[in-house]
Amino acid sequence: MRVSLIIPARNERANLEELLPRAARYGDEKILVDGHSSDGSAELARAHGFRVVEDHGRGKGEALRCGIAAAQGDVLVFMDADQSHDPDDIPKLLQPILDGEADHVGGSRMRGGSDELHGTPGELVRLWGSTLITLGINLRYGALLTDSQNGFRAIRAEVARALDLKEDITTIEQEMIVKTLKAGYRLVEVPTHEYRRKHGHSTFQVRKVAPRYVYTWLKLLI
Ligand SMILES: Nc1nc2c(ncn2[C@@H]2O[C@H](COP(=O)(O)OP(=O)(O)OP(=O)(O)O)[C@@H](O)[C@H]2O)c(=O)[nH]1
Ligand SMILES: [Mg+2]
Fold it and tell me: Are the C-beta atoms of residues 114 and 147 closer than 8 Å to each other?
């Protein structure tokens, strides 16, 4: 099975300098989906043997959809560029798919621990929000998931395309999870640790995206 590693990045040069040499060996094909970075992220990725695909400026969800459309591998691995995810966990994400036991494997921060979910009031809000969303999904689909929001996952390319993803922002994570369950594909979780973003600042603003999270969640559950 050919693995396509897909990393969405917007102005992540300092992180990519450290991440790309460690991550490159886990993809037969390596794609950086660039969010029109002005810091040379795209040039750096090319220098590390990554193919660069430009998104259309609508957000991380749209960036992942561009990655799915461009990828030629049999299995797609998504990971963030900010060094929150450890590339050495990729084999753990791939194993259930290689064993023929899963179509989609999500990394769980609740099982593997997170350095970004428990420290500040803002993180507490995100943890509660995320827990509530996961609970709704579990009740609706009879699942026992622990994390519906992590950006670290592996999925069979055929399945990713069949999901017909629509979300433009980070709500694409819960969209992928729910549509996988809805269509009856096999979804499993493995523990993966989430580290603090190493360089730069988070662009995630809970207040700005909360309405979209609630709207997508309800729409997906109905
Ligand atoms: N191509 C592209 N990548 C993006 C875009 N927005 C975010 N990213 C990347 O997606 C990954 C996750 O970003 P976000 O979910 O916004 O999270 P963050 O800024 O790290 O903040 P936290 O959620 O607090 O970790 C990072 O690698 C970002 O560089 C975008 O519009 N286009
Ligand atoms: Mg992050």
Answer: no
CA-wise closest residue to 183 among 168, 158, 162: 162
Convert the pLDDT of each residue in 5-35 to its tens digit.
999 999 999 999 999 999 999 999 999 999 9
Ligand 1 pocket residue status of 86, Cβ below 6 Å? no
How far, in Å, from the CA of 201 to the mean position of ligand 2?
Answer: 9
The pTM of the full predicted model, rounded to 2 decimals, is: 0.97
Give the distance (Å) from ligand 1 centre to CA of residue 142: 30
Distance (Å) of CA 73 to CA 27, 79, 189, 202: 9, 16, 21, 30
DSSP 194: B
Query: Is the CB of 9 inside a 6 Å radius of any atom of ligand 1?
Result: yes
What is the rounded distance in angstroms from the CA atom of residue 10 to the CA atom of residue 148? Answer: 23
